[in-house]
Description:
alpha+beta, Phosphoribosyl-aminoimidazole Synthetase, Chain A, domain 2
Amino acid sequence: MNERITLDQGAGGERMDTFIKERILTYFHIDPSVEVPLGMLDDASVIDDIVFSTDSHTVHPLIFPGGDIGSLAVAGTINDVSVLGATPLALSAGFIIEEGLSLNIFESIVKNMGVCAKKSGVPIITGDTKVVEKGAIQEFMINTSGIGRRSITLDENIEMVKRYRSFDQRWLLDSNLKAGDKLILSGTIGEHGVALLSFREGYGFETEVRSDVAPLNDLIHQALQVGGIVAAKDPTRGGLANTVNEFSEKSKTGILLFEDEIPILPGVHAACDLLGLDPLHIGNEGKVVLGVVNEKAEEILASIRKHPLGNNAAIIGEVTDGIQGVVLQTSIGGRRILQKPMGDPVPRIC
């Protein structure tokens, strides 16, 4: 039987995890010199203290409320490098363009890439451009790669962690959580997926919901200066539910989330209720979840809230050995298991 690849195998969640592990990683050689290898499935890898990440972007529509495919590509790759605790240094940009794409749309997107890169302080220093015949792809696809390096700030952050508990890692990894740690979310969730879906389908929610696309390197650096961070991850495809489940699986510990503490805009709640979506499953492009030692949680939270991108930050959960997997403490006082989505409820958002 000749099996075919399906959309949900590239959309985040459980099916994509299985696809990567069974159909991709099994064919790649594991080099023991790589400190954080591909097989760990963190947001970036590390070799010789250089953090390296790559991401391909296929977004519909190309331009949406709050951003476009270009600003998304730049911010997303900066964030993937930053969540390991590295300082992003530079980006590459690879374009695959469908013949017939509006030149005005193309230039607007590329201009916004430059603006986003300049604002974040991470330059685009190399790239490639291909134009393919009409129908070969859908309009415009972008690949961005990023490199980053270790910083004194990361080392000082880790020394702070060691004051409160054992810690033998050199980077912020999904597997670093231990019982007693707290989870901090940098702001409201669900805007990116809802904004794209609404604009794409004409629901009208975009009048009050805009994508949260933003580079997070400065916010993460500010939090690292306080010290006490053990893990970080941006909740993109699969949303917050996917992120915390990856933390739980890789750290081999339970996570208890508090529903009342998770910040969600009323417009996102309304859209998700109408469309039958769970906001915890919706992708974001300008938020980060931090795992921090309990003793530094309030101080880190206060620091993040002073940042323009962290006004609505909150402590949303805790790591515990008293449960398995991820459990949500609901608003009505009950508990329910929060699983990874099988696929992405809002496709082609990143």
